[in-house]
Amino acid sequence: MDTVIRKIDVNNIDREVMEEASQVLHRGGMVAFPTETVYGLGADALDEKASAKIYAAKGRPSDNPLIVHISDIEQLDKLVCEIPDNAKKLMDAFWPGPMTLIFKKSGLVPDGTTGGLDTVAVRMPNHKAALELIRTSGVAIAAPSANTSGRPSPTTAAHVADDLSGKIDMIIDGGAVGIGIESTIVDVTSEIPMVLRPGYITMEMLEKVVGKVGIDKAITGPVSPDVKPKAPGMKYKHYAPKAELTMFKGELKNVVEHINNLTDKNVKSGIKTGIIACEETKDMYKAGEVLSIGSRNNEDTIAHNLYGVLRKFDDMNVDVIYGETFEDNRLGQAIMNRLLKAAGYHVEKV
Ligand code: AMP
Ligand code: MG
After folding, report:
1. Ligand 2 center to residue 293 CA distance, Å?
2. Inter-residue contact 126 to 98 (CB < 8 Å)
3. Who wins on pLDDT, 228 or 311?
């Protein structure tokens, strides 16, 4: 299949591109498009055959449900059985935005879209092109991240093309995304809302709106095989670069020294080593391929750069990657969740 790539100016969206993409969606095809979190791979959420194509293109396990994207609250009524009060409060506070809510699904949403679950994940993205595509097509768009399953999520159209060129109908190139990590997933079917995946909207932000919020235990660390994460996708290895990633925690200067020692040995044995550093430490590394993920004083920048850095190490063909760890409160919780999963929870204390 030829994948058509269309560039748009997000502040002056070309109607013809939106029409072309809508036609692809109407005939059951797939369009990758930018959102404020990461690029999504979209298809008609209510067309089971169309959402099945997403699983095939990504190589995604069929029990890993898709998030349905809407542009207007009215679209929600036909997707869900009920809208709990907590959901209304959260939607008022954070939609459009990087928060996905889990509802009991209506009969209109096919099992193929929800991986066989009786719940459905819904989000209203805060991105002009994404909203325009949903409005122009009139389609509720099922869209997981537009990467090959397991690889780092795409934050540019080039990342999407690297993974999915030839497998999907169209890519809308709206430039680099803003946030860079996926939405916070909140299950509002229980009395106390539960975070199933940390994201840009932090626990503190949610708690200000609805009071107590829980967090699914399975996402805060490696768990025994019998504890199943409530978001099925969280049980798979994810976000991973090709080379094995090991994270090091401890006092920063000790971490740098330890990584320097390991890298020194690697260089002598011809092992190409990537290092995830930060602005504050990047000049302290003596060898290896050093990439700064951003300043420790600016978590937004770290989130924004995270997947791009992991993908760059793939392009550089490094053999191993060593990474510093970051604080794990507020947005750091989402950052460390992604990095630890990318590392298969391989963290060493130094
Ligand atoms: P992605 O869109 O690739 O970021 O992945 C979507 C995430 O949402 C995966 O981790 C899914 O397991 C999760 N998800 C989607 N639908 C549901 C649902 N109904 N219940 C729980 N988690 C869900
Ligand atoms: Mg994904």
Report:
1. 20
2. yes
3. 311
* Contact between residue 162 and residue 143 where contact means Cβ atoms under 8 Å apart: no
pLDDT tens track for 106-165: 999 999 999 999 999 999 999 999 999 999 999 999 999 999 999 999 999 999 999 999
Q: What is the DSSP letter of 110?
A: -
64 CB under 6 A from ligand 1? yes
What CA–CA distance (Å, rounded) separates 281 from 272? 20
> Residue 215: in which H helix or E strand, if any?
strand 214-215
Q: Is 68 in the pocket of ligand 1 (CB under 6 A)?
A: no
* β-pair partners for 92: none
Ligand 1 pocket, residue 232 CB under 6 Å? yes
Which domains are assigned to the chain?
Answer: 4-219 (3.90.870.10), 244-349 (3.40.50.11030)
Residue among 179, 121, 177 at smallest CA distance from 338 = 179
pTM score of the predicted model: 0.95
Can you give the pLDDT at residue 223? Answer: 64
